[in-house]
Amino acid sequence: MEVKTSLLDNMIGVGDMVLLEPLNEDSFIENLRKRFDHNEIYTYIGSVVISMNPYRSLPIFTPEKVEEYLPGLDEAYRSLRDQDKDQCILITGESGAGKTEASKLVMSYVAAVCGKGQEVNKVKEQLLQSNPVLEAFGNAKTVRNDNSSRFGKYMDIEFDFKGDPLGGVISNYLLEKSRVCKQPRGERNFHIFYQLLSGASGDTLMSDRLFLSVLSQNAMQIVGFMEDEVQLVLELVAAVLKLGNIEFKPESRVNGFDESRVKDKNDLKEMCELLGIEQSVLERAFSYRTVEAKMEKVSTTLNVAQAYYARDALAKNLYSRLFSWLVTRINESIKAQAKTRHKVMGVLDIYGFEIFEDNSFEQFIINYCNEKLQQIFIELTLREEQEEYVREGIEWTNIEYFNNAIICDLIENNQNGILAMLDEECLRPGTVTDDTFLDKLNTICAEHQHFESRLSKNSKFLTDHSLPHSCFRIQHYAGKVLYRVEGFVDKNNDLLYRDLSQAMYKATHSLMRQLFPEGNPAKVNLKRPLTAGTVLCIKPNDKKAAHIFTDSLVCHQVRYLGLMENVRVRRAGYAFRQPYEPCLERYKMLCKQTWPHWRGPARDGVEVLLTDCSVPAEEFAYGRSKIFIRNPRTLFTLEERRRACLEDLATLIQKIYRGWKCRTHFLLLKKSQVVVAAWYRRYAQQKKYEKIKSATLVMQSFTRGWKARKILRQLKYEKRCKEAVTTIAAYWHGTQARMELRRLKTEARNKHAVSVIWAYWQGTKARRELRCLKEEARRKHAVAVIWAYWRGLQVRREYRKFFRANAGKKIYCFIIQRIMQKYFLGLKTTVPSMSPIDNTWSAQPYSFLEGAHTELRRIFHLWRCKKHRGQFTEEKKAVYEEKLEASEIFKNKKALYPSSVSQPFKGDYLEIHKNPKYQKLNSAVEEKVLLADVVNKINRANGKGSPRLFLLTKNNFVLADQKTGQVKASVPLPDLTSVSVSTQSDGFFALKLKEGSASAAKGDFLLNSEHLIEIITKLHRTWTTAADKDQINIDISDEFLVQFKQDKVCVKFIQGGPKNGTSAACKRKNNRLLEVSVPSSP
């Protein structure tokens, strides 16, 4: 049977403080120091673990060493697996004492001792990787700890009957969400913000795609987060960051009240784009607050301080709800899938006790939680110790111990507790401030021995200058803590204005409706497992450095954790206890009667063992299932004797092993000799058998050859006889066949002659009969014809009178039908061509066909128009639509329009995609080019034009240098307000820009082009489609104003004489006038 390693084996110092001799505070601290110096960071008080933070990585954290260094966890796991008892591991200590790392070690232990398999490994990996995700969102750097948990976590790890993990459930408590908006000096915000900023560059942070550090991103994927879910979470984290950039400025109203406004709307715009919220909705929520009173809604303005409060409240609530959603999402991934009953091991990791220079509401809640946890620890350890003596039947006198329930009652009492009075003050009508809350505490809690305030009725604190007027002090189990009352009421209210909640609910971001639902969230009830183990974490120094052990700091923690009292309670009864079976298994070699096997009950064996070892009766006691040893020296004596016996047993085992090894070697040689002899005898017999077999085969072959030759001779004689008989029979059958053939030929010639004669006779007879039938048929036809003529004559005579009465009407109808038939047949040859512009049509032959003639002409025209339209391609349709739009804009308004009708709209006159000269310009313009042409940009100074490349895209028009292709100006179409042209045949046009826009910094553009009609038509068509608004304003006038930088210049068009040439010319008259001379139309 395998024997487990004991704490006493190769022990440095004393592994279990119950066995420490002598027991005092100095020896206790010295034992901790000695073990700490030798990297032994775990020490026990019975089942309670004392963990010293080494501030460095040790080899004991590998999976192979976890079970060796954590027998307490091993005992809890085996109790859960073998005894079907739910377990709970409570981890407590100051901030920075290593509680978070201790909880990770529990998870590593579970991964090390559980079974293997694809599904089990997946569950273990998900449970392990849930820690980095929660640490990224819930941990932060403080002055005492670089990775301080700023939330409480309780994880239920669920196991099956084999002890393999099936999944888990995580519950979070009291996230320190105020850290999102404000951090104490020397501390940082939650890790996730820094990981987000370090995971991507500045350009990436401004894009739609956000990145996280590789470690956290891999952990989220292993836990079960999809890639789009990770992106949604990072968008909300980025929104919280951008929310902190929003600032407000005051703005006075007519009624004298101040109103807050967002200082820089770009920050607000970026956040709204991330969350999918309309900018105006969120801006109003930061400036107004809606209050309902008696079924009426009243909207009040917010000043700058209230706006900042609303911003911070939104940031805290958004991050807090996102963290709760993360925990829920992780639970969905790691929850157990099986519906059977599960065993549970709970691990509680919560804030450490905190004492800062400035302690506020957050430290008050954290220290209250640690106060409750200390109370549970005292009750569980002392009660379990004393109940075990009663359960085992050991005589025991109950020991009284200090109960910190009086401190818990001071905080949580439903009537006079601090939390109850804080809630009551928040709900009280009227003016409620932190000072009124402190006044109430001074009135009700003044006489409490653990409450101190300078303004209370207790006069002993009136002269205490270390206690400010706006503070109160509570004497916790870990020492006195001074709390500043400022902010208690606001943080307890944690008010989020309804307007902000409604604005968040309207967001299109897929997570926002889950984070801000309508109605109250469901509450979750949790149960405490039946059995609890405790890990007490101690920090050796305040410098967060390795190899430093500060006696005063460790002594302070030992005192307020009550470790000395715990050891004394353990030793007041019995210092060591162990079940009978392991005790007998460990020390059975000390007695000849129990070695090597004891056949009776384990308790009887232990009694025989202790009697044989002459252990005094007052040094031990027998329980129902355990042996209890009072003095540690008795145990040390047994260990020394056991060590001596083990040396003798080792010598005996070596002797037996050497003898067994020699006998085994001899038996192997003997067995080998027998095998060799057997193989040789087999080989000799095999050779003899092969010789006899070869001789037998030769004799058999000779005998078979003689018999075969004899049979062959007999078969050849029989074959010759059969061939002779066959030849004679063949000659006879041939003679008979030839005689029969001659007889058949004679009979055939006679039959053929008879057939020919009969055929000639039948033919002659048939021809005679045919002539008779034809004669008779001619006679019958003649009779039928004569009868038909006779009947016709009789019918005509009978119906002649009826025909004369209706003859006119029938003739008329016949004539009309004949005329219409002739008319329609005539249309077939006289129908005009298929061209829609052909207006010819055949003349109307008769007046009564006037309506039909006109309707047919209309129907035919519609039909050929439809056929003509069906031949159009999409490009041709677009050209005709542009021509039609140009007609609507310029027809009868611009003298240049008639000459442009016959010219097709080409669009790209420069062939910008094919011409290598414009390759640089083509790469600079990302959108599709709708029009590319050379225009002249008119200079205000002299009225002369400079050639420019004019490019029109879907959203912009671009002016570029003709020689270099460099972009001179790029104007978005929404910045264009109107276009001005003259009524004459010139190509001048002005593009007027929106005042105040970035594009209008240098003023409007005055351009000249040969394709003015096409440019303005495409510009009008593109602007209307891109802006999705009304049509652009096109001003057609011979005199209009153009804005050049800060001045407005009038452009005037006049009719010039022949000396002006064939093209229009622009000339500057003065600083305010440009005159364009247009040649007269011929």
Comma- or semicolon-separated keywords:
1082 residues, alpha+beta, seven-stranded mixed sheet, eight-stranded mixed sheet
Q: Would you give an account of this structure?
A:
This protein is an alpha+beta fold. Helices cover 50% and strands 16% of the residues. It is built from 29 helices and 31 strands. The strands form eight sheets. Strands 23-22-21-20-26-25-24-27 form an eight-stranded mixed sheet. Strands 1-2-16-3-12-6-7 form a seven-stranded mixed sheet, with helices on both faces. The radius of gyration is 56 Å and the shape is flat. Mean pLDDT is 79; it is low at 1-7 and 518-531.
Per the principal axes of the C-alpha atoms, what is the gross shape? flat
Mean pLDDT score? 79
What's the arrangement of strands in the largest beta sheet? 23-22-21-20-26-25-24-27
Please report the total strand number as a whole number. 31
Share of residues in strands: 15-25%
Largest sheet: 8 strands, mixed
Continuous helix count: 29
Question: In percent, how helical is the residue content?
Answer: 40-55%
